Fold these 2 entries.
Entry 1:
Amino acid sequence: QSVLTQPPSASGAPGQRVTISCSGSSSNIGSNTVNWYQQLPGTAPKLLIYSNNQRPSGVPDRFSGSKSGTSASLAISGLQSEDEADYYCAAWDDSLNGPVFGGGTKLTVL
Amino acid sequence: QLQLQESGPGLVKPSETLSLTCTVSGGSISSSSHYWGWIRQPPGKGLEWIGSIYYSGTTYYNPSLKSRVTISVDTSKNQFSLKLSSVTAADTAVYYCARVDTTGTLDHWGQGTLVTVSS
């Protein structure tokens, strides 16, 4: 059982926009910034979004993040086949004194 | 460019101790702005934080694993290590090492290594 809650799956056609939600509590998302990681099949997770809505160098601006209260979301616009991956949200948890993760959302490009 | 590489046995017997090392290249493990962490992912499942260490040796462990985990650092070799004792099949997972910034962001990851617990 993951500390942060994500839908297990999401899908969209090429070119469409999809959003993935992430819900937490006051000890994690409510008081700390949210990060998103992309895990392509058979590879290690890669930082996709940090500090709620910042993109590391090299991440396309099709990817965007937002946070409100104890929830966050990842939006992917102009969906492409190479976006098929698992997406994980994460945030520092003040009770755990470490990062907590969502269970992951498997994105399928139809 | 910062790189992290996990190494260690891919097969561990039940009740024994799992030992992994992460070698950091392209940067110093003695950075005052970062911690170094271990994360695992059981097959087909999500990510679980195991623990983190600062170059000074200060450690933070997931309470669910704390009684079995030891993380150490060797600044002379630019490495940090994980030991997980009394392993069971439930500890079978891909183990990742990562760099952690002061906000808890894991900004660089190793490629991961699969550790199977089986007799």
Entry 2:
Amino acid sequence: GDSVTQMEGPVTLSEEAFLTINCTYTATGYPSLFWYVQYPGEGLQLLLKATKADDKGSNKGFEATYRKETTSFHLEKGSVQVSDSAVYFCALSEDQTGANNLFFGTGTRLTVIP
Amino acid sequence: DAGITQSPRYKITETGRQVTLMCHQTWSHSYMFWYRQDLGHGLRLIYYSAAADITDKGEVPDGYVVSRSKTENFPLTLESATRSQTSVYFCASSRDWQADTQYFGPGTRLTVL
């Protein structure tokens, strides 16, 4: 079955540090891949997505590249800010059942300190 | 205000009681979803609905009931709450079945004592 594995947190970084959050997936077909972000007290928001191999999703300085050969979709940011403190979820969707449900990773909590 | 709202935001109940969590969206989205978020599990789909009067089970439906008599509302009922249902519940809606169009509500934190 489909699944997503992401690195366990929590991750604590100093402001302007480089961020990588690892995500690998298992899927039977050709999934779309997503990163969602959850700020404190809020629901999840789509951060970026990639729908096919070698696509790069990007938003707000974050990037992730869909790597089919390594079944990975790692999230990166060159210089984190305190405002990036949140929980980040990797997710995939295959839509094979005709309904769009998402398979989520367990989430990685990022704390950025000044 | 437009968007997706959930109520209550926090709820404490006792084992065996019935609890209903409300979800309301103002976009007239066809699809609506209920997820639960637990430590170590991320989000898991409980139920979803493709339109009014059409609902289907997700990954973890046991112990939950849903209805969708109106497009904008999608209540989730725990008929007899158990401690294992202590969780944060998120409602989401989407215009179509593309996964990246799901919009999430702020969540309801439910504690079952």
